[in-house]
């Protein structure tokens, strides 16, 4: 079944209030739903009431207190139809269903994880609990009563505020929760179990006191202190930056160990993958700390962008996700280093969204059709969606953007809104016409902008010839011209931005060229000397750039651009171009050779004390095989990419050996440990240097020492990666893998890192490594985190292993995806996207990848989730 945006129609019926009573038991949970159903104003007659279900068993059905005759309704597992609802148009519908949380391996609806009952209802999981109008534009006030055995579940949580609790017979007890804010069913949540609690409180800007609770496995309370701190910082920040205040008496977060995604913003009761809550220096890396901070903030920020204002339908998913990602990006930028954060965001966007946008799974930020909505929780909706909001701010300026946001909250609080509603507030506050800009929501594909510059010394004119094009994507062969805000600078030989007397050929304001036509010839006058052009500063638009620019200009910008992002970009582009040349050399049977200037520039950047260590670390990270492959675009042989990249690593290390060693030694791990951004930046730089130095003779000893001396997980995991990847088989590597395993075998989240590091072992042997790790006692095919760390890493982050020339990587992959699919279609479908770039491989691998896709597509009884991905990937 295909769902289309243009088919949206408001529901004939509304459900203004919902009462739910759960009597919890692992295999036989009963759910009694008492719904107030109301015909929507203006609907004529008494049309049938059709409720969504998914795998439900109906036990009881009453309307206004009277049992319904079997002839009056039709109940299947997936639907409940009441053909002739009361003509009055307002009635009470009582439904009793029975479900088995312990058998729910799809982890949608109500399930049990480690003995804890929990729910995941977005997008369409609520219909696995009871029959309902399970669509986001049906807003209802929920009152939830949870009953359970006290010994099994002393803790009973749901959305909103607690209003009552007490004992029942036979060791049972109950709690009642009421959420005064009307909400869609996807935001419903329930948690029941035996968990430890970390408590705190927060006083909002207007003086309301909010009780905060984070619930984790007993004994792990200490590991939630960082998350709690991040939560309080998020709450304050949202008040200060967006004027958004929290609105209930309590705010709870629960960490569970089986979770399909990162976390979920259920009103007043966020549920998290425990990976994004639990952390201390011993078990979490600096990346983990940063992710926890970002995701805690993200889910909290949804309280306004997502919950108070929700989506009319799932086509509008980016309305809440793109916007909330933008908000969490800004939060992290304010808490940490803005420049470093921006570089990290762009790296993520290019690594995940660009291949999506440039391959068979491309779709607009606001899609127009879907078969399975779960497959649209994508980098395009989230990350590109955030970039689109960022461009609105760039175009309007920070002040008008904030006014637009204020108007959005004022105008749409309590609504299920659309992207058109969102754009309208910015048009209204600014008076600007955003209709061309709106194409960013409607049109898929990464625009390319080609630029060349020329200087006329005699006339003092500098000219930029700029052309945009948007490549065709599936089902969109012809693209319209976009409004692209291109931030730029004309950099003089001292590194300062030049002033110009006048400009013609495009709207240019506040350092931004607004491209609206296919081609602009932009002339700057009053430019005496030839500038170096810095383009797409701060990554002002999510595009690819083709700029005719000399290596000298790039190297100059890498050292002198006043925009930190562009400095990083200039050096990164130099590295990428170098690696593409190296790839061609390797394919031609020649040893790659490198420009001595470039090799030295790496040393200059590494030791430039005016730059933050975290920035230097990011600059020194060579583009990965997938990054280089994306730039080349076709006929990819990952082994040749890797050979070129290893050669460059070695050459950089050899050229800068002394400088790198001295710097490495000077960065000795600071004690006591602090997860703050500056300390993390020093660790990142030191660990990048380790990676280089370990490529030199004697490097294995250095890595072994680094591992042995590590006093935190960041350093330990970094050393383990270097040993396991570059020095596999050495005594140091073998010992380190064994000691890490012995030390952490009881800690599932740390074991994920152990699996992940080994799953990314480069080269042909990775297939056997992964196969044998699947037999490891700590591996479990039903736990999403384990599957992602071993299989997800192998398929998405190990180019040479996964794309092994003989196809053995694909075989392992097909077997596993199909095994996962039987339990959890959503996780399987996500894994399967790893093959989306198969058409860019060289012909031999391409044929084998296609075979793998065909094997999956011809498997009988494929889930809608997996079938959708496979078919689009093959199309
Ligand atoms: Zn979200």
TrEMBL record:
Q: Which Gene3D superfamilies match?
A: 2.60.40.1840, 3.30.2010.30, Neutral Protease Domain 2, Peptidase M1, alanyl aminopeptidase, C-terminal domain, tricorn interacting facor f3 domain
Q: Name one Pfam family in it.
A: DUF3458_C
Please tell me which top-level EC class this enzyme sits in: hydrolase
Is Nuclease among the key words of this record? Answer: no
Q: Which UniProt keywords apply?
A: Aminopeptidase, Hydrolase, Metal-binding, Metalloprotease, Protease, Zinc
What this protein needs as a cofactor is:
Zn(2+)
Q: Which reaction does it catalyse?
A: Release of an N-terminal amino acid, Xaa-|-Yaa- from a peptide, amide or arylamide. Xaa is preferably Ala, but may be most amino acids including Pro (slow action). When a terminal hydrophobic residue is followed by a prolyl residue, the two may be released as an intact Xaa-Pro dipeptide
Classify the source by domain of life.
Answer: Bacteria
What InterPro entries does UniProt report for this protein, alphabetically? Answer: Aminopeptidase_N-like_N, Aminopeptidase_N-like_N_sf, PepN_Ig-like_sf, Peptidase_M1, Peptidase_M1_dom, Peptidase_M1_pepN, Peptidase_M1_pepN_C, Peptidase_M1_pepN_C_sf
Q: Which residues form the Aminopeptidase N-like N-terminal domain?
A: 20-187
BP GO annotations: proteolysis
Against CDD domains, the record matches this protein to:
M1_APN
Identify the residues that the record assigns to the Peptidase M1 alanyl aminopeptidase Ig-like fold domain, covering every copy.
Answer: 445-546
Provide the Peptidase M1 membrane alanine aminopeptidase domain boundaries: 226-437
Start and end residues of each Peptidase M1 alanyl aminopeptidase C-terminal domain? 552-875
The record's section on SUPFAM superfamilies has:
Leukotriene A4 hydrolase N-terminal domain, Metalloproteases ('zincins'), catalytic domain
Q: What is its EC number?
A: 3.4.11.2
A Gene Ontology MF term for this entry?
A: alanyl aminopeptidase activity
NCBIfam families registered for this protein in UniProt: pepN_proteo
Family affiliation: Belongs to the peptidase M1 family.
Q: What is this protein called?
A: Aminopeptidase N
Organism of provenance = Pseudaminobacter soli (ex Li et al. 2025)
Taxonomic lineage is: Bacteria, Pseudomonadati, Pseudomonadota, Alphaproteobacteria, Hyphomicrobiales
């Amino acid at each position: 079944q295909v769902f289309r945006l243009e088919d949206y129609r408001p529901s004939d019926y509304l459900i203004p209030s919902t009462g739910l009573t759960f009597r919890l038991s692992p295999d036989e949970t009963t759910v009694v739903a008492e719904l107030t159903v109301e015909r929507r104003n203006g609907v004529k007659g008494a049309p049938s009431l059709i409720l969504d279900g998914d795998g439900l068993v109906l036990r009881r059905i009453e309307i206004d207190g009277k049992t319904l005759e079997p002839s009056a309704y039709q109940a299947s597992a997936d639907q409940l139809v009441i053909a002739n609802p009361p003509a009055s148009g307002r009635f009470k519908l009582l439904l009793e269903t029975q479900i088995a949380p312990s058998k729910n391996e799809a982890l949608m609806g109500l399930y049990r994880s480690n003995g804890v009952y929990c729910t995941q209802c977005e997008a369409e999981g609520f219909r696995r609990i009871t029959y309902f109008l399970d669509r986001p534009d049906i807003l209802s006030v929920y009152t939830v009563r949870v009953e359970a055995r006290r010994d099994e579940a002393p803790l009973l949580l749901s959305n909103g505020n607690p209003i009552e609790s007490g004992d029942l017979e036979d060791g049972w007890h109950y709690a009642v929760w009421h959420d005064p804010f009307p909400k869609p069913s996807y935001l419903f949540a329930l948690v029941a179990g035996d968990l430890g609690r970390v408590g705190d409180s927060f006083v909002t800007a207007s003086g309301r006191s909010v009780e905060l609770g984070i619930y984790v496995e007993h004994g792990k309370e200490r590991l939630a202190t960082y998350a709690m701190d991040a939560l309080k910082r998020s709450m304050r920040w949202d008040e200060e930056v967006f004027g958004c205040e929290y609105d209930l008496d309590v705010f709870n977060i629960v960490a569970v160990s089986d979770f399909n995604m990162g976390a979920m913003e259920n009103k007043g009761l966020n549920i998290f993958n425990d990976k994004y809550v639990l952390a201390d220096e011993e078990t979490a890396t600096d990346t983990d700390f940063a992710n926890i901070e970002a995701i805690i903030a993200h889910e909290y920020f949804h309280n306004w962008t997502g919950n108070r204002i929700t989506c009319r339908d799932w086509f509008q998913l980016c309305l809440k996700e793109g916007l909330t990602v933008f908000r969490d990006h800004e939060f992290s930028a304010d808490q940490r280093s803005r420049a470093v954060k921006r570089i990290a965001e762009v790296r993520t966007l290019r690594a995940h969204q660009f291949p999506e946008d440039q391959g068979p799974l491309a779709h607009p930020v606001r899609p127009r059709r879907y078969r399975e909505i779960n497959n649209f929780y994508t980098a395009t909706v989230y990350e590109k969606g955030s970039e689109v909001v960022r461009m609105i701010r760039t175009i309007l300026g920070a002040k008008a953007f904030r006014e637009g946001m204020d108007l959005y909250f004022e105008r749409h609080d309590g609504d299920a809104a659309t992207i058109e509603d969102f754009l309208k507030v910015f048009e209204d506050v600014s008076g600007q016409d955003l209709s061309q800009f709106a194409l960013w929501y409607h049109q898929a594909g990464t625009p390319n902008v080609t630029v060349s510059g020329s200087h006329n010394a005699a006339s003092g004119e500098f000219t930029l010839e700029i052309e945009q094009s948007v490549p065709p994507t599936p089902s969109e062969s012809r693209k319209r011209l976009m409004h692209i805000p291109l931030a730029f600078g004309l950099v003089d030989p001292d590194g300062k931005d030049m002033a110009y007397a006048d400009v013609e050929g495009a709207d240019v304001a506040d350092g931004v060229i607004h491209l609206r036509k296919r081609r602009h010839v932009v002339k700057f006058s009053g430019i005496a000397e030839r500038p170096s052009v810095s383009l797409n500063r701060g990554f002002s638009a999510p595009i690819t750039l083709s700029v005719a620019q000399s290596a000298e200009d790039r190297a100059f910008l890498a050292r002198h651009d006043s925009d930190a992002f562009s400095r990083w970009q200039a050096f990164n582009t130099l590295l990428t171009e170098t690696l593409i040349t190296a790839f061609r050399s390797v394919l031609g049977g020649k040893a790659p050779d490198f420009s001595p200037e470039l090799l030295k520039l790496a040393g200059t950047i590494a030791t430039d004390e005016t730059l933050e260590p975290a920035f230097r670390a990011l600059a020194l990270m060579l583009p990965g095989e997938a990054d280089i492959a994306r730039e080349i675009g076709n006929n990819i042989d990952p082994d040749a990419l890797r050979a070129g990249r290893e050669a460059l690593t070695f050459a950089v290390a050899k050229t800068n050996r002394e400088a790198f060693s001295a710097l490495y030694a000077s960065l000795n791990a600071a004690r006591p440990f602090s997860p703050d951004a500056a300390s993390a930046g020093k660790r990142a730089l030191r660990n990048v240097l380790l990676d280089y130095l370990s490529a030199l003779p004697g490097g294995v000893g250095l890595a072994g020492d680094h591992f042995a001396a590590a006093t935190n997980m960041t350093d330990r995991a970094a050393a383990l990666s270097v040993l396991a990847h570059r020095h596999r088989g050495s005594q140091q590597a073998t010992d380190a893998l064994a000691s890490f395993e012995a030390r952490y075998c009881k800690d599932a989240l740390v074991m994920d890192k152990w699996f992940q590091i080994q799953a990314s072992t480069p080269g042909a042997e990775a297939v056997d490594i992964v196969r044998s790790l699947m037999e490891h006692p700590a591996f479990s095919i039903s736990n999403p985190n384990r599957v992602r760390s071993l299989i997800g890493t192998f398929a998405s982050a190990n180019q040479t292993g996964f794309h092994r020339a003989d196809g053995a990587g694909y075989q392992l992959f097909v077997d596993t995806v199909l095994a996962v699919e039987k339990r959890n279609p959503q996780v399987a479908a996500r894994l399967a996207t790893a093959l989306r770039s198969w058409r860019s491989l060289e012909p031999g691998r391409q044929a084998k990848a296609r075979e793998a896709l065909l094997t999956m597509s011809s498997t009988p009884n494929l889930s809608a989730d997996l079938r959708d991905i496979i078919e689009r990937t093959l199309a």
